[in-house]
Design goal:
Blueprint: H1 3-17, H2 19-39, H3 53-73, H4 78-101, H5 121-140, H6 146-164
Helix pairs in contact: 1-2, 2-4, 3-4, 3-5, 4-6, 5-6
Length: 172
């Protein structure tokens, strides 16, 4: 993990969510990044744990579809608790994608704030679907928006955890 990048994300989250929530969100994301680094590395994958933005977007879509299935087929609070774990995974994938494919200075440009308006995990997942689709489309249209998209994904996942006060930590 790139400490400078993690610090920048933490600073951004503190501005948006306040110190206490940002700390909980960061603990959740870092726990997942550490897990990912352990399972995606030069000893465990043919890619040495490296992926393009497009590959990460496809991973994110797969997990997003899983969150949609959970939210549409389970009662509360079970649905939100399980979906929060997926948001943690997706946020950490956005961090990994930026760490591997983005220059630090590019990742913190101004971005659209609509994901921060989400009132619950369902709305965060809906925004997330839009952001990832938009990012994939921009990538294929040769637009250089990957770094901004990664930050939007991180903020959207963070809002989903924050709105329900569910900050799941990766265990194991």
């Amino acid at each position: 993990m790139h400490k400078a990048y993690i610090n920048k994300i933490n600073n951004k989250l503190q501005k948006v969510f306040g110190h206490q929530s940002a700390e909980k969100i960061m603990v959740a994301i870092i726990s997942e990044r550490e897990y990912q680094d352990n399972i995606w590395n030069e000893n465990t994958t043919s890619t040495n744990g490296k992926h393009t933005h497009i590959e990460f977007y496809l991973f994110m879509i797969s997990y997003l579809n899983e969150a949609i299935d959970i939210l549409s087929r389970n009662p509360e609070p079970k649905a939100s608790n399980e979906a929060a774990h997926i948001l943690r995974k997706i946020a950490a994938m956005a961090v990994a994608s930026s760490e591997q494919n983005t220059q630090l200075k590019d990742a913190f440009s101004t971005h659209h704030k609509s994901p921060l308006e989400a009132k619950n995990i369902n709305e965060s997942v809906a925004f997330l679907s839009h952001i990832i689709s938009k990012a994939l489309s921009s990538n294929y249209n040769q637009c250089n928006t990957n770094s901004q998209s990664q930050m939007e994904i991180i903020l959207c996942c963070s809002q989903g955890m924050h709105s329900n006060e569910i900050y799941p930590i990766r265990e194991g």
